């Protein structure tokens, strides 16, 4: 009898655990921003798409890196170039009118921004990678935040930059081509991370 009761308690515990796990998963799904809703927010304006450059194999840059010479840099692969085109097409499919396109001065970022074909690309030093110059992190992050706080209600900006820059500003570690949607909060004078759009979205 004790054995039977013990089994009943065990089964009840398993069932409860399964139910709680399902409930937690449901809550997580409900809390997660909907992909279509994120595209909708970009389309309505007052938001920015902070994007990591498309696929460029490797990490950092070669020791002989020269900003003005793409041959000395890590560059987009053919897959990365196609990824950038696909992301640009996603903006058009979701009817997102882009007011401005800014980019890091690194070739892989500029190439990504241009391949999006969302408008004229303006290089912005605050978006430059500080992967090898960590002493620049605080200054550049503050400059980028101040620039993003200038987004007007009807505007949508696209900013192509690097993982370190996005992580420093938002706490998000993005994949290649991933977009972090942000908006300024006039009440607090700070940026709010609205959600993330994965490259496949």
From TrEMBL:
| Span of the signal peptide | 1-24
Superkingdom field:
Bacteria
- UniProt keyword list: Signal
The protein here is known as Broad specificity phosphatase PhoE
């Amino acid at each position: 009898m004790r054995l039977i009761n013990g089994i009943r308690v065990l089964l009840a515990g398993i069932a409860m655990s399964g139910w709680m796990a399902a409930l937690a998963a449901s809550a997580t799904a409900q809390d997660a921003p909907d992909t279509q809703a994120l595209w909708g927010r970009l389309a309505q304006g007052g938001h920015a798409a902070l994007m990591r450059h498309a696929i460029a194999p490797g990490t950092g840059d070669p020791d002989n890196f020269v900003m003005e010479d793409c041959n000395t840099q890590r560059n987009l692969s053919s897959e990365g170039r196609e990824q950038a085109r696909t992301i640009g097409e996603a903006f058009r499919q979701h009817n997102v009118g882009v007011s401005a396109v800014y980019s890091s001065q690194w070739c892989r970022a500029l190439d990504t921004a241009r391949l999006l074909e969302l408008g004229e690309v303006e290089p912005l030093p605050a978006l430059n990678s500080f992967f090898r110059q960590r002493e620049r992190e605080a200054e550049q992050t503050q400059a980028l935040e101040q620039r993003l706080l200038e987004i007007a209600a009807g505007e949508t900006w696209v900013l192509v930059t690097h993982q370190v820059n996005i992580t420093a500003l938002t706490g998000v570690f993005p994949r290649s081509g991933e977009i972090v949607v942000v908006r300024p909060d006039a009440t607090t004078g700070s940026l709010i991370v609205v959600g993330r759009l994965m490259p496949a979205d």
